[in-house]
Specification:
about 575 residues; mainly alpha; 2 domains; 4 strands; globular; Putative transcriptional regulatory protein
């Protein structure tokens, strides 16, 4: 146990807090407040002290390893070698009742929230948690603890690089739980404020004054600071582009910062006291995906600023704007390193031990191409229907459907590689929203085409994303919302969709069957009979009622167009945002 020491002013503005350790399997049943003697905390007349619980040391190691192996690739803001030392240092201080930085606790608790959310059957089976369900059910508990620690850190005006790292991880896991909600946006704004307080926006500016936080930063910490800062910039620019509530407004601007892009360097090459040796971009590292994501965010910001300067910021993008952006995205794809490209044929000829064929690089390749083709699919989606009858929009239709097929094909491709990341991918918001968008594109195309003349119009292709959303129904809070929304979108047009009807029939048959039980998940592709009831109910009832969720979402659009009028008048951002499904 460790009790946080505070100044007399802090004792007025912030309630006291203590940190304790217990077995992770019983952590949720531990009291949130601990009764202390009144004399323990001067100036306080209350006995109940807020308590933050952490797992045992060996459990924290296993949880951290899960995060570093499967999740960190989405936002590699951690320096792995020094992080392992941080864990040992925190626990040594906790066990000796010595002071611990609040930011470090925030980092560990946020990591617990993220790792337990994505915990799968392959993660330390039967040792850390008794079951996958137990681990997954703890995630919100850790989110609450992280929010409590963050609130306390703000009240005592204590910030650190570890605190910002913890807030970024917390933002990611909240997005997985509830999309880019107000809570998630508040967390990322707090992270930006804390990073600015640390002057991370001036890392490569003029020489800092002696009292500046930068003056005490080593070259290693500055490099990690660049990763942190540019991740925050990336999220700010993406939110400005995709979030209708911000309407092109961003907090961070390139001309108001002096921060170089992160170096393409491996964590093991970042050593305290030594010069940072950058690798060529053609060589994969743990930050390859982050660097490409930053490049994509710069392109997104160019789109946002260009649209704002046009004087039509409140209007949807025109067909001309979309084609120009499409060209920029194609140039971006052409500049991707071979090891991250789907079109590279040289990877298969490399030996299995080559770093370019490592599971980490494969997962980075999956994530990058997923967001690229999701963006292409979404961008051209408004002109999909018109493209079937008007040659002027045929290109948009082709690109939309091709990218939708790539999104679905990526799932099959990387499942074949048996990546650990793929086991829990349907619990990741980014993956689910991409599959959802692909399902809408393929389904709408099947509806406007009376004859299945295109390969993507086949039953199996059109039903594929439905099956993936069905698998995610019980795995993710977003899975059920997205499945119901996609069905309601089709019902809104009063369309008979063969793949959907087939899926409904299969689910009814599964409900009626009483023989056998198969676990649901990416490994089996089968569904437990016990899990079919809520899915089948959603599939069946979706066509009979008009949920308030869908009606509210639809009213956010300008008008209620019919399918044969084309989809270009639908504001897809506002439609999906209103349904708690932003494309971020």
């Amino acid at each position: 146990m460790w009790r946080l020491r505070r100044s007399s002013q802090d004792s007025i503005l912030a309630d006291p807090i203590i940190f304790r350790i217990c077995p992770v399997r019983v952590v949720c049943s531990q009291p949130s407040f601990i009764i202390q003697n009144r004399g323990s905390f001067p100036n306080h007349e209350v006995d109940a002290i807020k308590c933050i619980w952490l797992p045992l040391r060996h459990e924290m190691r296993a949880i951290a390893q899960k995060y570093l192996t499967d999740i960190s690739l989405f936002h590699h803001i951690i320096h792995v070698p020094t992080f392992h030392s941080l864990v040992e240092d925190v626990y040594s201080k906790l066990e000796s009742n010595s002071p611990v930085e609040v930011g470090r606790v925030l980092l560990l608790v946020s990591m617990c929230a993220s790792a337990t959310y994505a915990w799968s059957s392959r993660d330390d089976p039967g040792n850390t948690f008794s079951s996958v369900a137990e681990a997954n059910s703890q995630s919100l508990f850790w989110v609450k603890q992280a929010l409590d620690v963050s609130d306390h850190a703000q009240r005592i005006s204590q910030t650190s690089m570890e605190a910002v790292q913890g807030l970024i991880i917390l933002f990611f896991v909240i997005c997985n739980h509830e999309s880019v909600s107000q809570r998630a946006r508040n967390v990322i704004m707090i992270a930006i404020s804390a990073a600015t307080e640390l002057q991370l926006h001036r890392i490569d500016g003029s020489l800092p004054v002696p009292t500046s936080p930068l003056s005490r930063m080593s070259q290693l910490k500055k490099e990690i600071g660049r990763r942190i800062w540019w991740y925050l910039v990336t999220m700010d620019w993406l939110l400005a582009h995709f979030n209708p509530l911000q309407e092109g407004f961003c907090v961070l601007h390139a001309d108001q910062m002096a921060v170089n892009l992160p170096k393409n360097v491996r964590d093991e090459d970042l050593i305290e006291g030594r010069e940072v040796i950058e690798r060529p971009m053609t060589e994969p590292t743990c930050v390859s995906y982050l660097i490409q994501r930053i490049r994509l965010a710069e392109l997104t910001q160019w789109m946002t600023e260009r649209h704002s300067r046009s004087g039509q910021a409140s209007q949807p993008y025109s067909s001309r704007d979309i084609l120009e952006t499409d060209m920029k995205l194609k140039e971006f794809i052409g500049g991707i390193p071979d090891f991250l490209s789907l079109d590279s044929s040289s990877l298969s000829h490399l030996p299995p031990t080559d770093p370019r064929r490592s599971p980490l690089v494969a997962a980075q390749r999956y994530a990058l191409n997923l967001i690229l083709h999701r963006q292409l699919c979404k961008m051209h989606l408004p002109y999909l229907a018109q493209g079937t009858v008007d040659p002027a929009y045929a290109y948009s239709r082709d690109v939309c459907l091709r990218s939708a097929s790539v999104v679905i094909g990526l799932d099959h491709k990387f499942l074949e590689e048996h990546l650990q990341f793929c086991i829990s991918k349907l619990r990741i918001s980014m993956v689910l929203r991409s599959v959802f968008l692909a399902s809408i594109a393929l389904a709408l195309n099947a509806c406007v085409k009376s004859e299945a003349t295109d390969g993507v119009d086949g039953l199996d292709d059109a039903a594929g994303p439905w099956k993936m959303l069905m698998e995610a129904y019980d795995q993710s809070p977003s899975g059920s919302r997205l499945l119901e929304l996609s069905i309601q979108l089709l019902r809104k047009y009063k369309i008979k969709h063969d793949p959907l009807e087939t899926l409904q029939r299969q689910m009814r048959e599964a409900m009626a069957s009483t023989s056998g039980s198969h676990p649901m998940g990416p490994e089996s592709g089968r569904v437990e009979p016990s899990s079919t009831a809520p899915v089948a109910q959603a599939l069946t009832c979706a066509g009979e009622t008009e949920p308030a969720m869908m009606e509210t979402s639809w009213q956010r659009c300008e008008g209620k167009p019919q399918l044969d009028m084309g989809l270009n008048v639908v504001d897809w951002d506002k439609l999906f945002w209103g349904s708690d499904a932003p494309f971020i």
